[in-house]
């Protein structure tokens, strides 16, 4: 099967192979540009996420795709479905906001966020900003998320990746399958790479 | 154009474009519906007791217990793209210290049109507490019934169905009987 392709390569020369690699790289680069551009437009570090757990059933099942935005000027409201990441935890969590407390600039929010780790504010973190304290809960859970907060009393805007705006069912199951069966991921990448290199157009 | 590979290529391209067009059509077609359901929320009583916080079992916190009546009809919101409607009743108030609070005290999921007629005499499912440990700085609160429509495909929409006609005050704390 490959003798035909190898003969073609010898005929066209090394430059042809380099051209194919360049095509491949430009496809990957444009994909990355679209992803990062989407992240800038929505002001979220990860504007498309896959639902990983069943804690929001029957609304979201494992494998659903969610579209997020993170408006910096807008305050979050109760009922919004937010994706947040606790510092120290790897996976983002998709739950609904149950309580919001809008603390104006004049009050120091650290009075209310007596987290177990009493750390000084990092340089660059302005504790005098108009901030919000949030409490979340999954629709399918009986109690709110306080055990998931790893010592925090409340979530703040800086923990939130974004708010769910739109929804596409089942599409994200591919990424979950690839995580559970890493052989599938390597097989897919290997197959795509091979296909890109041996294509002659 | 006659190899198996080319045939599979063309068929799958056609399948995915048609699928995307169908999903877009479903999502956009639901923008036509602008039904706004009306309802009624009234609060029967509010009582404030002292309880323990969930995390620190020895720290005291004032908790408010609310009894309410809700009637509303959400049937006009159901169409081919409605997967479920999430209802929630929330308390809203601005403390005298300037903090704006909204807390959900009750919620329900409606999955079918037959269940869309809501008539509930209930009490709060979730603890209603203030950031500070008491309600001394809390003025009378409004209670509003809001809904979130979750589609099979497309954008999530929110709305408000009902609100208490006047704010309801938090009474002073009672000692437990």
Automatic annotation (TrEMBL), chain A:
<feature type="transmembrane region" description="Helical">
    <location>
        <begin position="12"/>
        <end position="35"/>
    </location>
</feature>
<comment type="function">
    <text>Catalytic component of the signal peptidase complex (SPC) which catalyzes the cleavage of N-terminal signal sequences from nascent proteins as they are translocated into the lumen of the endoplasmic reticulum. Specifically cleaves N-terminal signal peptides that contain a hydrophobic alpha-helix (h-region) shorter than 18-20 amino acids.</text>
</comment>
<keyword id="KW-1133">Transmembrane helix</keyword>
<protein>
    <recommendedName>
        <fullName>Signal peptidase complex catalytic subunit SEC11</fullName>
        <ecNumber>3.4.21.89</ecNumber>
    </recommendedName>
</protein>
<feature type="region of interest" description="Disordered">
    <location>
        <begin position="112"/>
        <end position="131"/>
    </location>
</feature>
<dbReference type="GO" id="GO:0009003">
    <property type="term" value="F:signal peptidase activity"/>
</dbReference>
<dbReference type="InterPro" id="IPR001733">
    <property type="entry name" value="Peptidase_S26B"/>
</dbReference>
<dbReference type="GO" id="GO:0004252">
    <property type="term" value="F:serine-type endopeptidase activity"/>
</dbReference>
<keyword id="KW-0472">Membrane</keyword>
<dbReference type="InterPro" id="IPR019533">
    <property type="entry name" value="Peptidase_S26"/>
</dbReference>
<dbReference type="InterPro" id="IPR036286">
    <property type="entry name" value="LexA/Signal_pep-like_sf"/>
</dbReference>
<keyword id="KW-0378">Hydrolase</keyword>
<comment type="similarity">
    <text>Belongs to the peptidase S26B family.</text>
</comment>
<keyword id="KW-0645">Protease</keyword>
<dbReference type="InterPro" id="IPR019756">
    <property type="entry name" value="Pept_S26A_signal_pept_1_Ser-AS"/>
</dbReference>
<keyword id="KW-0256">Endoplasmic reticulum</keyword>
<dbReference type="GO" id="GO:0006465">
    <property type="term" value="P:signal peptide processing"/>
</dbReference>
<dbReference type="GO" id="GO:0005787">
    <property type="term" value="C:signal peptidase complex"/>
</dbReference>
<keyword id="KW-0735">Signal-anchor</keyword>
<keyword id="KW-0812">Transmembrane</keyword>
<comment type="subunit">
    <text>Component of the signal peptidase complex (SPC) composed of a catalytic subunit SEC11 and three accessory subunits SPC1, SPC2 and SPC3. The complex induces a local thinning of the ER membrane which is used to measure the length of the signal peptide (SP) h-region of protein substrates. This ensures the selectivity of the complex towards h-regions shorter than 18-20 amino acids. SPC associates with the translocon complex.</text>
</comment>
TrEMBL record, chain B:
<keyword id="KW-0812">Transmembrane</keyword>
<keyword id="KW-0256">Endoplasmic reticulum</keyword>
<keyword id="KW-0472">Membrane</keyword>
<keyword id="KW-1133">Transmembrane helix</keyword>
<dbReference type="GO" id="GO:0005787">
    <property type="term" value="C:signal peptidase complex"/>
</dbReference>
<comment type="similarity">
    <text>Belongs to the SPCS3 family.</text>
</comment>
<dbReference type="InterPro" id="IPR007653">
    <property type="entry name" value="SPC3"/>
</dbReference>
<protein>
    <recommendedName>
        <fullName>Signal peptidase subunit 3</fullName>
    </recommendedName>
</protein>
<dbReference type="Pfam" id="PF04573">
    <property type="entry name" value="SPC22"/>
</dbReference>
<dbReference type="GO" id="GO:0006465">
    <property type="term" value="P:signal peptide processing"/>
</dbReference>
<comment type="function">
    <text>Essential component of the signal peptidase complex (SPC) which catalyzes the cleavage of N-terminal signal sequences from nascent proteins as they are translocated into the lumen of the endoplasmic reticulum. Essential for the SPC catalytic activity, possibly by stabilizing and positioning the active center of the complex close to the lumenal surface. Essential for viability.</text>
</comment>
<keyword id="KW-0735">Signal-anchor</keyword>
<dbReference type="GO" id="GO:0045047">
    <property type="term" value="P:protein targeting to ER"/>
</dbReference>
């Amino acid at each position: 099967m490959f003798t035909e392709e190898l003969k073609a390569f010898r005929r066209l020369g090394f430059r042809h192979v380099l051209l194919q690699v360049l095509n491949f790289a430009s496809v990957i680069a444009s994909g990355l540009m679209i992803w990062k551009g989407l992240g800038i437009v929505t002001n979220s570090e990860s504007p498309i996420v896959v639902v990983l757990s069943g804690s929001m059933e029957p609304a979201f099942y494992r494998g659903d795709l969610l579209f997020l935005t993170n408006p910096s000027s807008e305050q979050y409201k109760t009922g919004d479905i937010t994706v947040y990441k606790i510092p120290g935890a790897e996976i983002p969590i998709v739950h609904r906001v149950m309580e919001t407390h809008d603390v104006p600039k004049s009050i120091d929010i650290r009075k209310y966020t007596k987290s177990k780790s009493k750390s000084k504010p990092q340089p660059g973190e302005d504790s005098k900003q108009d901030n919000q304290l949030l409490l979340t809960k999954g629709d399918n859970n009986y109690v709110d998320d306080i055990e998931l907060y790893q010592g925090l009393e409340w979530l703040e805007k800086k923990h939130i990746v974004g708010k769910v705006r739109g929804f596409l069912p089942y599409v994200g199951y591919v990424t979950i399958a690839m995580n559970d069966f890493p052989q599938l991921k390597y097989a897919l990448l290997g197959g795509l790479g091979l296909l890109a290199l041996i294509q002659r157009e | 154009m006659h190899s198996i590979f080319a045939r599979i290529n063309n068929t799958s391209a056609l399948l995915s474009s048609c699928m995307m067009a169908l999903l877009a059509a479903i999502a956009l077609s639901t923008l036509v519906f602008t039904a706004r359901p009306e309802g009624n929320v009234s609060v029967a009583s509010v009582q404030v007791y002292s309880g323990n916080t969930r995390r620190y079992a020895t720290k005291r916190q004032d908790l408010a217990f609310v009894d309410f009546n809700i009637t509303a009809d959400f049937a006009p919101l159901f169409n081919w793209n409605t997967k479920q409607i999430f209802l929630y009743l929330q308390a809203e108030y601005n403390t005298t210290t300037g903090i704006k609070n909204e807390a959900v005290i009750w919620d329900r999921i409606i999955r079918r049109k037959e269940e869309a007629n809501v008539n509930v005499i209930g009490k709060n499912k979730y603890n209603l507490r203030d950031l500070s440990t008491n309600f001394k700085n809390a003025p009378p609160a409004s209670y509003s019934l809001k809904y979130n429509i979750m589609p099979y495909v497309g954008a999530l929409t929110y709305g408000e169905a009902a609100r208490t006609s006047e704010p309801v005050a938090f009474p002073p704390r009672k000692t437990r009987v």
